Amino acid sequence: MTSDRAILHVDMDAFYASVEQHDEPALAGKPVLVGGPSARGVVAAASYEARRFGIRSAMPMREALERCPHAVCVRPRMPRYQEVSRRIFAIFHEVTPLVQGLSLDEAFLDVTASPEPAARIASSVKRRIRETTGLTASVGVASSKLVAKIASDFEKPDGLTVVSADRLQEFLDPLSVRRLPGLGRKAGERVEALGLKTLGELRRAPDAILWPLFGRHSQRVRERASGIDGRPVVTDRDEKSVSAEDTFDRDIGDARTLEAELTRLADRACVRIRAKSLVAGCVAVKIRRHDFATFTRRRTIAPPTQNRRTISSVAAELLARWLVEHPGAKLRLLGVALTDLNPATQLGLFHDVRPGPGLDTAVDAICERFGRRALRRANQL
Asked: Which active-site residues does the annotation give?
């Protein structure tokens, strides 16, 4: 790299699906869909064998199975994905302290200070991930986060694309405007309708064309199409929220059944914040009625906690009050969100004396080893 910065964008290839294929060799080479198998479920991840049928993440599972009837559906195993993610991020932090995680399977790494060439570092990261996890990653190397992200998607799967400063426009100009992160599908369609098909055409477009679409952001759009992006790799980005939600196969009106479902979702969210060593200061319940009307109820909790019993109790009370206000309501979706997250610290001597982290951690470990259904609450039986 000849510019002042060297940024890597590492993106695991079909992460959830790849983990499932690695852990179950019989799935290798088959179209695998990770997600709820119900008619209302959605695809959380699709293997590359499934993507050949036009299947993508967030597609309704029913549509995905219509496109590929012989696809294998696998329920998500978040604790397993989190465990693999921790091993991957450990590799990142051995390379540089400047790591910005975007999700379990994606991160920016700033390796500017390394005496080793960025391309060689990227190749080493890919090799170590494969040796440690058996999975493949695609890496983009550039002088900015924006271009590194575009580059990582350029030769997926198992790709490595290096964009040096002297060939920046040569790389970007022929690419479709749809490759520009953050543009969005609808905005991309409007840009193409104006005859701007490539990033090169977009960066050269005059204000007379861009202003009706982007207004005062026109120059910023033009800069992004040119690969101009001075954003730093931010290592201390706070986690804003952790949530878990499900859409039911059939609308549910029974209060006890709804409470059991809500407890299961609260437990799932608690597992996620404990895996990140966080505590929550607010619990929110998302409620979607059969007619798609959506409601949110929330409550702060003090002191902040990761205790599943405390969080489940608050969530259950929020739901119960809503049901009293809406008698006879049938629900198609429930969700639990934990917000006001902070790093877990030692609580005061008399704070939250109910069974807590020790029991919860033991339950997490058992379920991670033997599956989420190994231990269940009595109201979920």
From this structure: 106
